[in-house]
Amino acid sequence: MKPTLALGLLAACLAGCAADPIQLESDKTYQVEWIGERPLIDRSHLTLTLGEDGRAYGNAGCNHWFAAYTLEGDKLSFGQAGSTRKMCAPALMEQEQRFLDVLGSVQRWDVSGIGQLRLWPAAGKPIRLWPEEG
Is residue 11 one of the residues assigned to a domain? Predict the structure, then answer.
């Protein structure tokens, strides 16, 4: 078999086998894996759900959070976030505040080469998320 034909067949097979990329969907829950340059604290659980009504909500690690959001194509922004007021360990509280601060500066979203959802703030590294298994 000629090398160009073999490469063409391989490319066609890989394209046909590729999974559909992640799409940002309303009423789907995503789990946060990284906030900027830092991974989540072990066993902490941060989530984000975009409701069809323009309200986002989830678990911030200690408290539940909520905010209005606007989604237009790859542009995404969140209004001022509110949350419940439970106190947790200082490290969890710091992580929660960092998440809410970065969330408030998100301007766009995309999907990485490994299929991970990324929410990009005005400056710095993104919040990285995976769809919640369900």
Answer: no
What tens digit of pLDDT does each residue of 63-101 get? 999 999 999 999 999 999 999 999 999 999 999 999 999
Instruction: Characterize 58-68 residue by residue with b for buried, 16 or more Cβ atoms within 10 angstroms of its Cβ, and e for exposed.
Output: bbbbbbebbbe
pLDDT tens, residue by residue, 32-47: 999 999 999 998 999 9
Percentage, residues of the chain above pLDDT 70: 82
In a domain, 3, yes or no: no
Query: Which two tokens mark 117?
Result: 């959802």
Q: Domain count for the chain, please give it.
A: 1
Q: Quote the domain boundaries for residue 27.
A: 21-131
The domain spanning residue 115 has which CATH number?
Answer: 2.40.128.270
